[in-house]
Amino acid sequence: MKKVMAVVTIILLAAVLGAGIFAVAEYRVNQRFGFYAKAAEGLIADGLKNDYLAEITFNNLNLTDGSVIRALQVYIDTAALTKDVSSTEKELRLWDVESSLSFLAEQYKERGFTAKYEDGFLDITLEKFDSFTDLYIASGRDGYEESDGIRGLEWGFWYNKYTFSDKTIFSQMENTIIQQITNQVANIRGIDEEDIAYIFNYGTLYSKRTLDSDADNIYYYSKYAINIHKFVMDKDSLDREFTIYQYSPNVITWYCLAIIITAIPAAAYIVYAYKKKNQTVKD
Question: pTM score, two decimals?
Fold first, then answer.
């Protein structure tokens, strides 16, 4: 009987420990990725409500190896920009695109950034970190800061829902690299401010089951095997507020479930063993 009780105890502890590890692991995922959204396709038009001639995209990519990449991308739709114009005007506009974006690429290379331009597409890597820890250290965070953007917690039976809201980096672009790039793009022949789309992309390896948002589009980016949350703005909506939803396991439910699943067969076996022992004594 003692051996039986020992086995039952081990099974119970294993189940409870397993449920705890699962719940804690998913909770740590939410802590790590949920409330740091300050990603990189650029060429995908999903979510764009208008036809824009240019896109300025701020990317925050959280990759599967734990590294983090922040980059700026500029895309000019040269086909749309040169549509229905004279051959002379077409050449002038194409030259403007080439010279402006090539200039930006060289300028930021000289400033120590990794920059590449080709065929109307400019990519500037602003920051790259091997891990989230490195990013936190570089930004002066120690992990004890409170997030002012947290709006509330909605308790659920299986999962709890956290809501976080903030504004994108475009809301504070004055005197930044983004404003410099915007001014350069707006000076290209045929492009006005209203022709520019501002895109904030947040990339995460976690699915909508763990991280969801009010993005204009959420899609899978196969190149890095991550999900992109794409928020689209124009010059009149740069103050747009975005919202991210996190789903974290309700630890109490998972612990109770593990105990119940293990306790029922354990109790049944104990009753069976007790009855069998009494029957043996009577015999």
Answer: 0.71
